[in-house]
Design goal:
Strand order of the largest sheet: 1-2
Protein name: MerR family transcriptional regulator
Organism: Cytobacillus mangrovibacter
Structural class: mainly alpha
Distance between the termini: 38 Å
CATH architecture of the largest domain: Orthogonal Bundle
Helix content: 55-70%
Largest sheet: 2 strands, antiparallel
Number of helices: 7
Shape: globular
Strand content: under 5%
InterPro entries: DNA-bd_dom_put_sf, MerR-type_HTH_dom, MerR_fam
Radius of gyration: 17 Å
Keywords: DNA-binding, Repressor, Transcription, Transcription regulation
Order of helices and strands: HHHEEHHHH
Number of strands: 2
């Protein structure tokens, strides 16, 4: 892990400043933690301590919800993103122009987000409607 990645993952912020930075309530933040969308560290006094990565993730959750994606859809997007990160080191470099699973997932995520943002059907919406409110 590079120095930048280590710094971004250091738990530095209590919930108060995180609420101000994200414009989320403490209840919303705890709810996302209950649903395992975020996992803040705990201080010795058992207070939640958030890293810059946690704050980025909360802002991403907020943006996705504003676009109409529900928690099930967000969990699926995060799962796919985590799988892509884990598989990136193991995947051989592709030399032909066949779409990789990663490219397909990015395309589907883009369509999900676009369909939610503009409130119109995408070519795959019939398969992803369960992710929208």
């Amino acid at each position: 892990m590079t120095g930048s990645k280590i710094r971004r993952s250091m738990p530095l912020f209590p919930i108060g400043p995180v609420m101000q930075l994200t414009e989320l309530t403490a209840r919303q933040i705890r709810y996302y933690e209950e649903h395992q969308l975020i996992s803040p560290a705990r201080s010795e006094g058992n207070r939640r301590m958030f890293s810059l990565n946690d704050i980025d993730k909360l802002l991403e959750i907020k943006d996705l919800i504003d676009q109409g994606i529900n928690l099930a859809g967000i969990k699926q997007l995060f799962f796919v993103k985590n799988q892509d990160v884990l598989a990136a080191d193991l995947r051989p470099v592709k030399t032909d122009r066949e779409l990789s699973n990663d490219e397909i997932r990015r395309h589907l995520r883009k369509e999900i987000v676009q369909a939610g943002r503009f409130n119109h059907p995408s070519s795959t919406q019939g398969n992803v409607t369960r992710f929208f409110h």
